Amino acid sequence: MKNHSLKFLVGLSLAAISPAIASEPEDMFKRMDTNGDKKVTSTEHAQFAETTFRQSDADSDGQVSAAECESAQAKHDKKIDKQATATHMRLVDTDGNGQISQMEHTAHAKSAFTRADKNNDGVLTEDEVEVFHKTMKKEMKG
Ligand SMILES: [Ca+2]
Ligand SMILES: [Ca+2]
Ligand SMILES: [Ca+2]
């Protein structure tokens, strides 16, 4: 039953937050690859991350709370996985104040990009995104 929310949160971790994010890695890949060249550059990834942050920050205070994270999830999946949200918050909220700042979000997105870029060529391919997606899913469950 948790599967949908889990997919969503895996998407979050790559993006690192996204209410608009698609459940499947290939959809997510298309959203990130804005010029459609089958590669996601760090610039494309950063832009995607920024957009998703703004979309998640419902009250536009520059911080994404767990509640905002959950409501973004609810918009997408119509259900909320509190445990996975807590895991996500713990990973991204590095100063532990219960809010994800733009800086924390950007830092997380950057490290996700680096981790996903297996061959270190500075761009993500669809395969790399898919592999990363699977890895994150395991981590979220663990
Ligand atoms: Ca591209
Ligand atoms: Ca906020
Ligand atoms: Ca924080």
Question: Would you kindly provide a written description of the structure presented here, covering whatever features stand out?
Answer:
The protein is mostly helical and 142 residues long. The chain has a single domain, classed as Recoverin, domain 1 (Orthogonal Bundle). Helix content is 63%, strand content 7%. It has 7 helices and 4 strands, in the order ααβαβααβαβα. It has helices spanning 3-15, 25-32, 42-56, 66-77, 82-92, 102-116, 126-141, and strands at 40-41, 63-65, 99-101, 123-124. The strands form 2 sheets. Strands 1-4 form a two-stranded antiparallel sheet. The protein has a two-stranded antiparallel ribbon with strand order 2-3. The longest helix is centred in the C-terminal third of the chain and has 16 residues, at 126-141. It is globular, with a radius of gyration of 14 Å. Residues 16-22 have low confidence and may be disordered. The chain binds calcium ion (3 copies).
